[in-house]
Amino acid sequence: MTSRRIGGVIHAYQKYDPVAFPPPSQPPPDLVTPAFEQAMMYGNFRQLTDEELANAVRLDPSQIAGLGPSIEFLRALLEERKRKILETYETRRVQKKARKAFQQSAQRVNPPARMEKMFRIAVNQEQPFLIERLWFDAGDDNSDLARNLLATGATMADKHNIEELASKYEFTGSESITIPQALEIKEELEKIDELLAQLDQAEKTAQVGIIDMDMLSEFAQPGDMEQLEEMRNQVENLLREQAERQGLERNDDGSGFRLTPQAYKIFQGRLLKRIFSELAPSRSGRHEGDVVGEGAVELQQTKAYEFGDSIANLDLPQTVINALIRHQDQRPLRLHSDDIVVHKTRNHPKCATAVIMDMSGSMRYDGQYINVKRMALGLQGLINSEYPGDFLRFIEMYTFAKLRSPGEIIECMPKQVTIHDPWVRLKCDMSNPEISEHQIHPHFTNIQHALQLARQNLVNCDTPNRQVMLITDGLPTAHFEGETLYMLYPPDPQTEAATMREAALCHKEGITINIFLVPSWSQSEEDIRFAYRMAQSTRGRVFFTSGQDLDRFVLWDYVQNRREIIT
Fold it and tell me: Which helix (H) or strand (E) is 346 found in, with range?
């Protein structure tokens, strides 16, 4: 009697399970941050195509497991093709053929006396650019000289390519090849290497969009390519779905994606989370701790009444209970000062801040301008989410100073250096109607004008807590005297004096100046001394920070300084 096996037929499917794609526990890919980082780098919200979106986003490799042919299979296919080529052919004889062809081609050239020396140097040193130069000097493209030079240049290039092939790959076969065959083999091996690199990247990051499907189709079977194309479509559909959830809106014509206000808000939230998560391990982590005292917001905690406390915050039920406990059956009930309990309150004072963002020519160094814009977006997100009553203005500073709305921060870019003289002494009457700002060199640093604009925006704010956050990399190189604009480089004492006068006016109006000095290739000890002089004269502060930490320093200082001012 045969034993009866329990169970039926088990089917194993290598295709993906739609329910498990992507895994429910896997967080969605971040599509907003790469888009905003690109926008900050290039200064515009250029629309993203489907392919750009797929290339920019990193998925977890587990999210493409089981879709289409495996990466390992495709890699093995390409490595096997490469191994067969190297084990079949040899390159010693084709190198000799290429060398001989080049020599014979060079012997057919009969240059005139004025070109003979350069031609011999070009041949002996095998310099293609010299052959090209001689061909241009020949004049007539149809002459024998021009045609022979062109042929010599071509055989020289073939010789170099074949030598590169022999040195780059280790051939172990014995089959001889011609020069055209060797060039074709070189092209094929380079394609294989490029595809292998793409597959390695796709395996690590699930960026299937980086694989060149047309190139891969030259080596893979049609059925495998169909499965791979299906896998890529599935990943792209996932990205499109996640993009729409994260605020990337598809254009009406379906050509690409554009960033929406929702994406803007999501990016700011992630930026704040990253900034304050870096602060969490330190002793000065993020804590809510506004000053407790005479304020507008009542807390649940109470305290005994003290002389001077406002009875508007009286905790009436607790006060009556205290009186009943103290006096028991005595009637009428009389309140004494010891019975009175008042609510503790919390102050939420208003702050007014102007952020001056240096966008002069030197801020391009090491991408400092990107750090400045990231800081500005983070600060604006912090104030909108936690201190909505605060006043905030952004000022772009270069040769001039301009107010910028939060939506324009992304578009701010360091100005192109338009004059490279080591000594510049320029002035311009800006009251002249024939002169516009577009005619002025934009890459100078006008701290005086920026402070003036900040003062004009802060002076009428209905709060005594006013401050300027000046983010720059060094000394001012431009200033206004009346309607006359001065552009002076190297930095001149005249510009510093005008800047200090404006800083003194800010101090007179009760505006604190905090200077965040970021590093630059041109920064010197004098830049640091200037920052100290301004801070000392206005009772401000100087912060030295690397560009990558700028957002963390500025935001945390805003939170801390907000508390210090009100205490």
Answer: strand 341-346
Whole-angstrom CA distances from 324 to 37, 301, 306 are: 65, 21, 20
* φ, ψ of residue 177 in degrees (nearest 5): -135, 160
Distance, in Å, from the CA atom of 119 to the CA atom of 226, rounded to the nearest integer, reads 54
Residue located via tokens 């605020």 = 247
Helices (H) and strands (E) in the chain, counts: 17, 14
Core vs surface per residue 5-31: b (16+ CB within 10 A) or e: eeeeeeeeeeebeeeebbeeeeeebbb
Does the pTM surpass 0.90? The reply is: no
Quote the CA–CA distance of 365 and 519 in Å, as a whole number.
9
CA–CA gap between residue 372 and residue 363 (Å, rounded): 9
Domain termination site, one of 325, 346, 367: 346
Strand partners, 130: none
Angle subtended by helix axes 550-566 and 368-386, to nearest 10:
40
Classify residue 136 as exposed, middle or buried by CB count within 10 Å of its CB (0-12, 13-18, 19+).
Answer: exposed
Residues 440 and 506 both lie in one domain: yes
Distance of CA 408 to the CA centre of its chain: 16
Strands 424-429 and 484-489: antiparallel
One domain for residues 392 and 339: no
Domain tally, the chain: 4
Q: Residue 100 region, left (φ>0) first, then alpha (ψ -120 to 50), else beta?
A: alpha
Interval 177-216: pLDDT, tens = 999 999 999 998 998 898 888 877 776 665 655 666 667 6
